[in-house]
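Loading example: each entry is read as four labelled lines plus one structure line.
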Amino acid sequence: MSTGEDDEGRQAWLRTVAADVARLDRSSSAERAADILRRSITEGALPPGAQLSEIELTEVLEVSRNTLREAFRLLTHEGLLVYKLHRGVFVPELDERDVVDLYRLRRVLEVDVVRGLAERDPELPAGRLEPLQDDVEAAEAAALADRWAAVGTANMRFHQHLIGLADSARMDAMTGRLLAELRLLFHVIATPQELHEPYIARNRGLFELLEARKYEQAAADLHQYLLDSEQGLLDAFRAR
Amino acid sequence: MSTGEDDEGRQAWLRTVAADVARLDRSSSAERAADILRRSITEGALPPGAQLSEIELTEVLEVSRNTLREAFRLLTHEGLLVYKLHRGVFVPELDERDVVDLYRLRRVLEVDVVRGLAERDPELPAGRLEPLQDDVEAAEAAALADRWAAVGTANMRFHQHLIGLADSARMDAMTGRLLAELRLLFHVIATPQELHEPYIARNRGLFELLEARKYEQAAADLHQYLLDSEQGLLDAFRAR
DNA sequence: AGAGTAGAGATTGTTCAACAATCCTGCAAG
DNA sequence: CTTGCAGGATTGTTGAACAATCTCTACTCT
């Protein structure tokens, strides 16, 4: 390995490796258990209101009670579980006020990210929008296959990647939480198709505006997009 | 207690009591330990970079290792500690990029809250600004007594209460985290006076604008306020 | 019959002791 | 100066035990 090569590329490579390493030595037991539970919750196997028995789960997940409780704590702070003292952990039951709260934050964060792109457009490396494109196409493909849960997932990832453009670790973390909670809300909806379908095309529209660097219009569109999405969720909620 | 009294006051009272009860049956051990550690960290007794030994702390805090680890998890998700697998927990060392990241979020959230006040001004109950006034006065009093750490605390509370005006549980939680991390940054600053002093008057100015319902101007002021504050922190950082 | 209550059983909160897995230190060898 | 290898220290995880609290049933009293 020669010493005088370009520093920027080397730095980028170092970060990639560091990220890989960090992914490898995941604190295993507790986080592995949390991963499994997280999927069960976001995919709806554990519906809102369900209680998670410690004894039962120690057997299923094959971890000790202490480790399981650490997994609970992890998920608690992601908003996917709530603790009730001396009564156990439950999958939270979100209501319409949570919808309003979540969408308010989504609007603030996402719209700001898109607006902020205008200022730092020059320094934005090429190919930065690729993850967004992949998500759009994944959603379209899933829709054709009538897999509406997968459509919802792809749409979520689209927004997560959108926030990712801001290069803010804290925004990423917050968005992860917000979207996880949103998933919780989706499970009370009977017909996921009409909930997700309209936003496949709108995501593509948004992506194309970003690609064309029309950031201000993209921000305006996104704002209305999120208002509509919120309204749709509220309607579905009241009709349940 | 008569039955026909005004409902709004009663609702408010019920919430107060509920909050008190919730505070009482705090999951005790783990959260109590976390409280102590939190104060030690935010007050600087545990400086950034310090490692927290499990054995040592079990003796000091008089809790078991398992409970202590749960306290660690709590603080980890507040951003006040970081886990390094098989190496222990550490007080994080934030750098200039974190300053930029934190302030970006502060600007987005706080400015949006103030802007949002314009729309819901009518439904805003009287006395809602009182906590802000208290914080302003506390800061002024602490400054007169040359207690600059207390000034910093009061200024922090001012912003926390400002966010509180939005009635968003998630914004409150996020702000709590952001401000806690900010406190971490303050400890690398040698002279807290020049860092906090300018913002006593600016907080009062902001409060008066809010009281006068000049929300748009308040938002603009706050935006610049936070830009200046960020710059001050960055300068102090580079001069360390 | 219905309301209130006491107690049994189940679940969570917390502790302790032990062992496995990993990291850090210092030292020797190349 | 780097590499490889003990040995000691620290963390990760487990299982069992006991205390504290909740829930539900059955009973008593009016």
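Chain A is about 70% helix and 5% strand.
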